[in-house]
Specification:
The chain is of the alpha/beta class and 149 residues long. The N and C termini lie far apart (33 Å). Helix 1 packs parallel to helix 5. The model has no long low-confidence stretch (mean pLDDT 94).
Length: 149
């Protein structure tokens, strides 16, 4: 795999860096970045434990940060890169942002939005699945393996 600047893999690596921060903070290691015009405008990772907030998923925090950066509730011309398939809450929030594209790494076979419906995003939102899927999935597996030890 060739890692070129501004490729999906390039930005997913940035999301993986966020996921590793979550891992180090003993949070489920999910990371997200939002890109607008080839610039990362928001970085986030899961913070549900630290904030004692079940809605503090990486995507939700990234949406808020990107909206603040753009001074807009809509994230037009933006792409969300997230290491794990969004849950239905995060997919629903993505719908309301009208984000142009969602790119995710590992599938979430238990809680991912696709377990409910594949039509959760805004009709104009493009979805790309499986970018750096192995790396994203391995970090999650390692986290839960350590939890069972």
């Amino acid at each position: 795999m060739e890692l070129t600047v501004f490729s999906d893999e390039y930005f997913m690596k940035a999301a993986l860096t966020e996921a590793k921060r979550a891992f180090d903070a003993d949070e489920i290691p999910v990371g997200a970045v939002i890109v607008c015009k080839k610039q990362i405008i928001a970085r986030a990772h899961n913070m549900t434990e630290k904030l004692n907030d079940v809605t503090a998923h990486a995507e939700m925090i990234a949406f808020t940060s990107a909206s603040n950066f753009l001074n807009s509730k809509y994230l037009e011309d933006c792409t969300l890169y997230v290491t794990l398939e969004p849950c239905t809450m995060c997919a629903g929030a993505a719908f309301w942002t009208q984000i142009d594209k969602v790119v995710f790494g590992a599938r979430d076979e238990k809680r991912g939005y696709s377990q409910i419906s594949t039509a959760m995003f805004h009709p104009k939102t493009m979805v790309t699945r499986g970018v750096l899927e192995k790396e994203c999935g391995e970090l999650l597996k390692e986290f839960f393996r350590k939890k069972r030890e």
